[in-house]
Amino acid sequence: MDVLLSEHHLRVYCVMITAPNTLPRVFKNGRREIGNMLCRNEFHSGTLPCVHVKFGVHRAVLNLPIGIDPNGGIWSHLATQYRQDILLMQEKQYSGVDYREVVIDDRTSTPLNNFSSIVDLLQWRVARQAEELSYCTIDTRCREGKNVTWKKLDTKIAAVASQIKNKWKVKAGDHVVLMYTHSEDFVFAVHACFCLGVVAVPLAPLDQNRLNEDIPALLHMIADFDVKAILVNAEVDHLLKGKPLSTHLKQSAAVLNIHMPPIHNTAKPPRSNSGCRDLGLAMNPDWVRSESVALVWTYWTPDQRRVAVGLGHDTIMGICKVMKETCQMTSSRPVVGCVRSTSGVGFVVSLLMGVFVGMLPATSLLPFIGGLILNNPLFK
User: Fold this and answer.
1) Which residues pair with 201 in a beta bridge?
2) pLDDT at 376 over 70
């Protein structure tokens, strides 16, 4: 961009580099040539595959509007001064993070920082609040689903953990991909992995409109982390075993020479009345060391570069501690988890904070509200 501007006085809006033979082409005079209009349309829609993008908006766009009135509109010095005069005496809002060494449970006055993992804290909740409500779901029609008590939550987690360990032979230290829609099955699977010392790698379900991006990203994740299994619920299982997606997945795996791990559905585990402690599912001291990884959050940059972050149990508890104090969460006020629950704040709110704070209900899972938020342009 600098060379074009200095040598040719050409202000470039965008420079995009694509992989060889990926631009859309058309037949012209018996030859396949790059289709200019097709490239332009795909660029505008954001579907043009690229490996590098650089924008130079500040140099190329020089006709930004400043207002239609003679003084320059809302960007003028007069309007700016008037706005500052109005806001001069207003109370300022300060946002920050509340770090505290000791965090107290507001119901029992127990120091929550004494627990080394979310698994131990969950077992403590089960022992003290067995018949109280822990989770509740709300469907797309805003109807309340089946409520889950702390005891029922413990038995569900134990059933899924027993299935993972005994039936599918996944051992402590193995990596598994968790690909779930926003559901209580996802909650059971995550905590089951924590109980077994299995490293959970949550990923969003594959998007059928972006298979050319999502499938290679999934396959490279499988190869890089040596994934032993992919755990899913009924909806994702139906999606992955559908003919178009399964065929695409197999063909891409064969091209990249990557072995696909088995896909297991955890939606209907064997019925059991035993909890995690009854089955001997206790935390190993080696799993809670600072160098041990319990969870992997994955992010992708706009140019499809992966950033993976490994979290240990001490980091997970630290995140929950900071969020509880910063957001002033108490057990009397439930928290709602609805979108982007595979990483970041969405994961913490949907799967961890209810257990950490002991809310009633711990977490409400609302796919309906999540859909409204994701489809609202204000949240894009």
Assistant:
1) 177
2) no
State pLDDT tens for residues 255-311: 999 999 999 999 989 888 899 999 989 899 999 998 999 999 999 887 778 999 999
Q: Which of the two residues, 328 and 220, has the higher pLDDT score?
A: 220
Burial class (CB in 10 A: 0-12, 13-18, 19+), 160: buried
Q: Confidence class of residue 166 from pLDDT cuts 50, 70 and 90?
A: very high
Is pLDDT of 158 > 90? yes
Tell me whether residue 274 is exposed, middle or buried, using C-beta atoms within 10 angstroms of its C-beta: 0 to 12, 13 to 18, 19 or more.
middle
DSSP per-residue codes, 38-53: HHHHHHHHT----SEE
- Kindly state the tokens that stand for 266: 């955890």
User: Which run of H or of E encompasses 87?
Assistant: helix 77-87
What pLDDT does residue 368 have? Answer: 42
Q: How many CA atoms within 13 Å lie on the side-chain side of 265?
A: 11
Q: How many CB atoms lie within 10 A of CB 322?
A: 16
Q: Which residues in the chain are classed under CATH 3.40.50.980?
A: 112-132+145-314
Write the CATH number of the domain with boundaries 112-132+145-314. Answer: 3.40.50.980
Structure tokens at 350: 């949907």
- Average pLDDT along the chain: 85
Separation CA 270–CA 274 (nearest Å): 11
138-156 burial code (b ≥16 CB/10 A, e <16): beeeeeeeeebbbbbbbbb
Q: What is the pTM of this model?
A: 0.73
For residue 137 the two structure tokens come to: 């779901």
pLDDT at 360: 55
Report DSSP letters for 11-43, one per residue. Answer: --SEEEE--TT-S-EEEETTEEEE-HHHHHHHH
- 378 DSSP 8-state letter: G
Q: Rounded to a whole number, what is the distance in angstroms from the first to the last CA of the chain?
A: 29
